[in-house]
Amino acid sequence: MTPTSLFESEADGALVRVVLERGIDSPEGLTYRAPKSIGAVQVGDRVEAPLGRHDRRATGYVVEVNVEADIDVSRIKPLRRLTGLRLPISLIRLSRWMSGYYCCPLGMALSAMAPGAVKHGVGRRRIAVLTRTGKRPVEKLPKQTGAAWDAIVALPDEEFPIEPRELALRISAPTLGPINRLVKLGLLERGEREIVRTASDEPVGETPSLVTLTEAQRAVIDSITADLGQFASHLLYGVTGSGKTEVYIRVLEQVIARGECAIVLVPEISLTPQTVARFVGRFREVGVAVLHSGLTASQRHQHWMRIASGEARIAIGARSALFAPFDEAMGSKLGLIIVDEEHDSAYKQEDVPRHHARDVALKRAQLEGATVLLGSATPSLESWRNAMEGRYRLHELTERVGGAKLPAVRIVDLADELREDATNATRLAMLGPTLRRSLRSTLDAGGQSILLLNRRGWASYICCPDHRCGWTLTCDECDVTMVYHRSRELPIGGVVRCHHCLAERKLPGQCPVCARRVTTFGAGTQRVEEELTHLFPEVAAAGEMLRIDGDTMRSAKDYFEALGAFADGKVRVLLGTQMIAKGLDFPGVELVGVINADTAINLPDFRAAERTFQLVSQVAGRAGRSTRAGRVIVQTFNPDHPSITLAAKHDYKTFAREELAVRERSQLPPVTRMARIVVRHEHYENAMKIARGIATALEAVRAHRSSLRVRGPMPCPISRIGGRHRIAIELIAPDVGTIQAALTALRNQGLAKSDATTAVDVDPIALL
Fold this sequence. Notes:
The protein is of the alpha/beta class. About 30% of the residues lie in helices and about 25% in strands.
């Protein structure tokens, strides 16, 4: 029944609280009436509601039903409709925690719980289906119809409802005629069902192989499975190639046997193909859904619905898979969350809500009584410290499976390399003589190689060659240098791009100040690719060389095809950025070359050494994963830096101990807790004025919490992006309670809104 007036009578439906998917910092939500005409409304329902004087359409989630009226009931507006999407109550609770902890509006946290494709119903269709009515024929059926009926009766109940053509195939009926006659006789009944159609919906799995567990693996599995059925946190520290994935699979088998469900998180889309293939191969019968940004919109919708309906009991994917809609009320209890490569920065969300998937996974598991398993060959210092202090149970796999050995790592001083080979032809080469010789011998022996340079483009620095002039090409909207990219469409020259605001223009031919020809420095993967083509023309001509970075890989299909070609041996040299550094398992890789290990080591960020150690260790671990020995060549201008020397020794424990001691002396995370507030404005004076107001308010907090330290206001290392000046304030305290108290005080004063002007980042992992 359609209401005759927007303001219906009080008796027509209960009052509910709705939190709108907007940046309104109102955790209580707005009160609406749920008219009987739209159906029963429950907590978690996504609804459409009128908002404001002109009743604009707004969407939000019901967070409470049967509430007391907080205003005149005659002014309470009715909801327009149910959208058909419902979140489990557990995700509503998780959203509330995220809103409080990460200092963001509850509506924005709720909005992150479901993909946009699900909200917009992409691929949703209504189809005709048939069900058995339970009636029996009252007279003898014609021969063909009778045969069809006998076959339909023999089908199990779970086959229904079923599409007519699918039913015809199941009973081997040549046409739909017999089925249509059974409908007319009342033996079958037509109905409708909503489905999500997509071009491809079934992930490819590999054939399960018989794996013999090592004693170390078996001990880890036994220890973790003993905690199933309750909240517990486990950290699995295992060297590369030690069989962590097999541990995940065996623990998952126990979870499925208990009748529970699981989430498996991987940090990068490039890690997904191999991981999905292994898990689908083992768990196809219980259903594996894939959730990551590389899917089409209809695929994301379909996989999400497979989880919500209980069809899939395992969800695998990147960060967003954490919010897979397993619902205990619907018989899909979440029993386990696995976070693979838990150290990876890709788990940190850059936009509101600025959460870390690893930490939110721990909270979701706590709320739902599930077990968490974090795994890495180079754990984050946060997780390692938690394990050392007993908050996580630590498990170690110190040896590779199958007799493989960790590769020998050779550190090469690039300064020495330049002195050894300083001809005009090679002094600017990115591959020094040691790496060139190793790559040649590997290719001649039929082996494969991975080369890492964590920098895209051709050159990252364009300037005037005359130091007296001093001109440098910077972005007009950002305080950063632009990056030169060679372009096939522009054979002469190329384009320069800003990797922050994505501005682009042609490479200038000369300095605008003194008219000298410009010079480019700071090589990226594009330049290395060209150098490799000159050094190994036969490999390039045969199509056996491939570059993987953000410029060449535009979709999930590109990643999957590229990695598939490398796995099949069609590609022998794989050059790329950090996306090829972790998680990939290719037994044919005999050589790994780190072209420049210094790309992150000198960044103005206290985590620079940790990231360098992790990157070098992870990419080194791609070599020697078979019985043949692997080699790793690390080129660097800092051959004595601890993050490089200890990575070369595969000595994570020493690195962690020494780096934690540095953090202790500096009173920096994870020894302390941190939050960062960045004020952004087109005018520097306005940005600084707002930031000073925040700093002043924090001084009042410090009067009651003396352990709080406030740094700033100060310009960020990248002081302007997209035409907006950036001023940072850092909050540091010995415990999270002090940080939360300070942010709550700011929030109550309207100074920490997480809006377009003010960004609040709790537990930041990057300070640029």
